[in-house]
Amino acid sequence: MTEPGQGNAIHGLTRWTAWALVRHDASAVLLRSVPHGYQGYPFGLEIDVEYRLDPGTGLHVAIAATNRGSRAAPFGTGSHPYLTVGTTSVDDCELMLPAAHWLPLDERGIPSGPPAAVDGTLYDFRQPRTIGTTRLDHALTGLNRDRDGRAWAHLAADGGAGARVGLWAGEGYRWLQVFTGDPLSPDRRRKAVAIEPMTCPPNAFATGDNLLVLQPGQAVTHTWGIRVLDP
After folding, report:
1. What does DSSP say about strands 175-179 and 41-54: parallel, antiparallel, or unpaired?
2. Which of 54, 79, 145, 196 sees the fewest Cβ atoms within 10 Å?
């Protein structure tokens, strides 16, 4: 339980565990975590994460999970990258999110109903627009994808004319958690936008929504990345 005030377990089981170095070279590093015997998660997974940086295509992240245990294991993965385009605040940045639905939450941050259409809400960024004073800490789904199966989110400075970065989420990532950092300390508040690819929504271990179940010996891999784009 990592958010005792709300009674929640957030940021995932491996957020606070040690990762072992498997290999690295000038452009990539492979890390491994083998969570086993943890209270609340009595399953045996082996998780490999490779971070690779390429001058032409940017950052590429591959997360591979294998069930090394003797029984089926529930599984979901999410990452927490923050995007910035060098501005002092995200308020004047332009944001594009390829999501048609957002997930209503209760005061604890637990889903309070099914996904709702973003039409006419503050969470509709399907067309690029300025963030302004919008506060975001929401899970979005119904992702539009390109012909390679990637869902792209963009953050840009100067109304789209300045620096621009794109985050892509590969197939299997059905959700993006978007966070403008409003509860953070003043030196970090609204300095960047977290756009977090997730395979399942919050509380999926309780609801089963988009939850993956790995059989003994089964493996699954998910990929996402970040790229600097032309204005």
Report:
1. unpaired
2. 54
